[in-house]
């Protein structure tokens, strides 16, 4: 266990069942201690490493920030971006820490697509399902321990159904464990300029340490769409079939709002209802992020309104 992990574990032990303020205080102190140690490390050491390529990992403080509210009071953020240029058209609380929920799976998919691009996987490569992956809570597609799912099936299941059992399967096959995979996720986040994001699981299931911002999710959504356009159909699909079962897309705007062609939904009680949506009309491309919607319907209405205004 490295120094970062010891700080995290020891901090959690100190916290026990304490208040949210004590939790943040303890972990923030641990983060400052780690930051001081990183500053003191010589150039080129692991503590000063910045993830900028495949296989590299970045040292991240235990908690450098956290949402100001708990699950009982969800923060709200939004951002509208010109997808082609990356220019921000409007925003509200875009840098406030938020819980990503299943928006997390955009990064899981990004790393999976990188594996295919690098030739380490093909779309037909089988991914082995562990007992750990199979017992993830819903949403899931019901993978069985010892079974396999192809890379293409996994990508479609993540994009359409947001399946947690598939997310862990991808993580374990690529990195050996979900923990190791999340280090790659955070390293890639830094490489992409997502300075307000830290991952501790591959699915987005509840964990107060897993945080992001609306601006970071906009940047990640844009990177995913522009770097891997060949997989655009996965995000446009309104359903996905696996082992004879049909799963409906979680993105309710597909086929209902003109021009919408993706991207990813997310919801846990801690976060409220999240959506990163992309759309194209008359040569214009837009990306809208809404985080912290009070309901699925309210989130969808807000994203639709922001799209209409931006076009």
List the defining traits of the structure above.
311 residues, alpha+beta, Beta-lactamase, 2 domains, five-stranded antiparallel sheet, two-stranded antiparallel ribbon, 10 helices, 9 strands, globular
Task: Set down the secondary structure blueprint.
Blueprint: H1 3-15, H2 20-40, E1 77-82, E2 88-92, H3 105-117, E3 126-128, H4 131-134, E4 148-150, H5 151-161, H6 164-175, H7 178-191, H8 214-227, H9 232-236, E5 239-242, E6 245-248, E7 260-268, E8 272-281, E9 284-293, H10 296-310
Antiparallel strand pairs: 1-2, 1-9, 3-4, 5-6, 7-8, 8-9
Structural overview:
This protein has 10 helices and 9 strands. By secondary structure, it is α+β, with helices and mostly antiparallel strands. The chain folds into 2 domains: 1-48, no CATH class; 49-310, Beta-lactamase, CATH 3.40.710. The protein has a 5-stranded antiparallel β-sheet with strand order 2-1-9-8-7, sandwiched between helices. Strands 3-4 form a two-stranded antiparallel ribbon. Strand 7 (260-268) and strand 8 (272-281) form a beta hairpin. Helix 1 (3-15) packs antiparallel against helix 2, helix 5 crosses helix 6 (164-175) and helix 6 packs across helix 7 (178-191). The longest helix is centred in the N-terminal third of the chain and has 21 residues, at 20-40. The chain is globular, with a radius of gyration of 19 Å. The termini are far apart. The model is unreliable at 1-65 and 68-73 (pLDDT under 50).
């Amino acid at each position: 266990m490295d120094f970062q992990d010891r700080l995290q574990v020891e901090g959690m032990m100190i916290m026990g069942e304490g208040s949210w303020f004590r939790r943040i205080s303890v972990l923030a102190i641990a983060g400052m201690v780690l930051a001081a140690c990183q500053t003191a490390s010589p150039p080129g050491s692991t503590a000063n490493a910045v993830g900028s390529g495949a296989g590299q990992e970045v040292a991240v403080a235990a908690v450098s920030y956290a949402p100001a509210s708990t699950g009982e009071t969800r923060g709200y953020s939004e951002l509208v971006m010109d997808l082609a240029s990356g220019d921000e058209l409007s925003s509200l609380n875009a840098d406030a820490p938020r819980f990503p929920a299943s928006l997390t799976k955009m990064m899981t998919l990004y790393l999976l697509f990188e594996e295919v691009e690098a030739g380490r996987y093909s779309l037909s490569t089988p991914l082995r399902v562990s007992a750990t992956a199979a017992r993830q809570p819903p949403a899931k597609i019901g993978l069985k321990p010892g079974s396999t799912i192809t890379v293409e099936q996994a990508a479609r299941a993540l994009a359409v159904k947001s399946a947690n059992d598939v997310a862990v399967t991808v993580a374990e096959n690529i990195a050996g464990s979900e923990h190791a995979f999340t280090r790659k996720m955070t390293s890639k986040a830094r490489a992409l300029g997502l300075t307000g994001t830290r991952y501790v699981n591959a699915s987005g299931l509840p964990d107060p340490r897993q945080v992001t911002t609306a601006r970071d999710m906009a940047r990640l959504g844009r990177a995913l769409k522009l770097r891997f356009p060949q997989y655009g159909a996965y995000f446009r699909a309104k359903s996905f079939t696996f082992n004879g079962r049909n799963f409906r897309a979680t993105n309710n705007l597909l086929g209902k709002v003109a021009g919408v062609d993706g991207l990813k939904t997310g919801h846990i009680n801690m976060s409220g209802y999240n959506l990163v949506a992309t759309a194209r009309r008359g040569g214009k491309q837009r990306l809208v992020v809404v985080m912290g919607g009070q309901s699925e319907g309210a989130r969808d209405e807000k994203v639709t309104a922001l799209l209409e205004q931006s076009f």
